[in-house]
Amino acid sequence: MEILRAEHVSYSYQSKYQKVEAVKDVSCSFEQGKFYAIVGESGSGKSTFLSLLAGLDSPSEGVIYVQGEPLNGMDRDAYRLNRAAVVYQSFHLFPLLTARENVMLPMEFKKISRKDAARQAQKLLSRVGLEPRIGGQFPKMMSGGEQQRVAIARAVASGGEIILADEPTGNLDSENEANVVALLKELAHEDGYTVIVITHNQRVAEETDHVFCMKDGRMEQAR
Amino acid sequence: MLLIRNSIRQLFRMRGRALLFFLLLATASGLCSLGRGFLVINREKMAAYEDSFLTIGTVEQKADKVRERMIWDAELKNYHIYNSSVYDTFVPLSALTFEGADYLSGPKKRGFYGAYMPQYEMYGIGMNLGEVVEGSPLEDVVPDHPVKFQVSRVLAGMGTREGNVITFCDHYDPSPEKLYADKTYVMSLQYRPGHESEKEFEGDYVSEYVPFPILTSDQVDLEGNSVPDEVADDHFSDVVTEGFYETKRGKRWMNLVESWDYARHIFPVTGTDDINLLMPFYNGNAYISGGREFTQEEYERGDRVCLVSELFAQHTGLQIGDQLHLALQYANHRRTPGDAFGSNSMAVFSLLNAEGEIYPVFEEADYEIVGTYGGQAGLKDEYGMGYNEILIPSSSVKNSDADNILESGPMTGSTTSFRIANGTIDEYMEQWNKQGISNVEITFYDRGYSELEANINNMKYIAGLLIVMGTVMVLMVLFYFSWLFIGKQGERTAIERALGLQKRQCFLSLFSGIFLILLVGSVCGCTLGSGLAGKIASQIGEESYYDTTFGNSAAIDRETFPPGETVVFPAPMREAAVCTLLILSAGTGIAAVGILKNLCREPMQMFAGGQEAC
Description:
Number of domains of chain A: 1
CATH topology of chain A: Rossmann fold
Shape of chain B: rod-shaped
Distance between the termini of chain A: 19 Å
Strand order of the largest sheet of chain A: 6-7-8-3-9-10
Largest interface: A-B, 27 and 22 residues
Number of helices of chain B: 13
Oligomer: heterodimer
CATH superfamily of chain A: P-loop containing nucleotide triphosphate hydrolases
Helix content of chain A: 25-40%
Shape of chain A: globular
Number of domains of chain B: 3
Order of helices and strands of chain A: EEEHEEHEHHHEHEHEE
Number of strands of chain B: 22
Largest sheet of chain B: 8 strands, mixed
Strand content of chain B: 15-25%
Helix content of chain B: 25-40%
Structural class of chain A: alpha/beta
Strand content of chain A: 25-35%
Radius of gyration of chain A: 17 Å
CATH architecture of chain A: 3-Layer(aba) Sandwich
Largest sheet of chain A: 6 strands, mixed
Structural class of chain B: alpha+beta
């Protein structure tokens, strides 16, 4: 089932010196329960495109549909809160909250009680392979792999159906990389999430069901 | 609540920074509040001083020259030489009315009135009124030494009796007229120090009487010129012959005898525009002890109200609210009651006008006693209160006293004064000096207001400095911590946005923790600052109010600053609240600008670290 579709999406912005066309006329679609990779060189526009899919900004041209509904017409904050979660290369955890509190936060935003959120968060942390003691630790005390797992647990905690990951393994060693990729793959294939990762790591791309390639802002399906 | 809780939780996990923010903000707020508190307390102090400190000026005309006055002393057979001041003319009161002279009351040349009240007798003061007697010397004699004189009739006075032989000497006349034993003389005499060595006259203690020349009127006009007395000269005696008392001169003697009784029942009455212009009240020797002072309206309307001394009220049984009938008989434009009725012995004036009649009453009315005053009379001081002195609003006397003036004199410090606003002495003197009147001297009394004003101005300067320092520090703290807690929290806002929080929720998330510290810090700082300001001001107040180095007397408003009680200035908590609100507003504004600056960028830009302006 198609869950996300981009139709002729372009995005440009005015930098200090010139107008930059980051995404040019991109059309593609993503289905539920699939694991996607978007590859490309640095500056090819893949991260920008992912942000557009996450509703963090609006396309200059074209439309992104979420289950047939244009994202432009939706409450983009509610979209991110309920349907699409983002995982970043640099994790972007709240440094002053513990791992558990970071995971609890999206649930609490959705009015889930603190007690239930804490219980769920602990389960999710176990699910992503973290020991219970990690739950009480602050991000600074964790390794990169552990932080990324917490970020993935937080994405799952939001309860949406789309996980958008921007270079999720970019800061990880090969062992952690494999673990994170396996986790994302599991979320797609077993839990039915649509997982889209941005990567320029061939090994990661090979683990996905479909690979899109971006070059100079344009998209082409590689596999 | 979740957002607020999270915000506070995150802030408190930066304990060091949060604590530093709190401490610096509290200190800065404290400085602001302390400064503002000082400023307000100083303002209140000044207001209190305005009520309790008074600046009055007294006016004294300097004599144009000094003349030697020679008085014969029969015992020494020589003259005593005294210096007396001579005034070519009296400088009129109007000389004090000039451009730039802004009086709160006065200028006023007071003097006093004599009110005849036969139902009451002067109390508390000695009355050496003397005698009017008829009699003859025991032998023909020139009384240039103590001589024996037999009293055949006492017309007035209580010092001697009919048949008594008294000692008499025309002590002050170098060539007295001869007295004859076969003639009867009427004389006004007074016991005075005369031949001290001859008190033991022929073995017995005998008082010596000397002439008391009050048969002659001292009446003067408004300009101070003597009104000619066609009947009497300075003579103190006359030969009594058949029908003498039917003559003009004889009638004058009878009027003098009648006035003797008046003298015991005449009370000094002072009309004033402001009781603080009376030095005893100004310097605290006199004070309202019961009832109330006159109101401004009573002064202006000239209401028939009066203040009496406690002693007078006690002696007469009069109470506040009672009516006192005042029949004003004469006006004395030269002396104050303190001078005439302030010593142990009352001054005695001739109560006869130039026509030889007892001064007729020129103003008569019932006055309501609205208050009593306490204080010591009998200080033998022209600046003191007179015994049984009665105070009335000067404008309550409606009729002219022009025909009833028994003495006149120049403006003196005790009779002429005015009141100006505190702190305006220099301005006044600058204008006065331009008038070019060199024979009038003005002396100011301000109870040390000038020194206090200088101190207060110093405190104002310190308060200003504290406010500036505090404000600068508050702004620096606010900007620095705004940058630390907000400017550097762009990523946090971006994560929250990415997690689906709306902008207003992100605002609340970031702002609530900061606001809490702002609130607690500013409330603590401002409260402590104001409390400290009150405490310091009270300590300074305690030292200064009762430290006589600040004033020329301890005469401070007894209601505002009761003696023996610590002057406590309450901490200006309203100002603390104002200060807190101002700091909160500034902090909120600065924080809001920082947060909105974060929020106006899309999360994507924020993650990318873009700094483009919104």
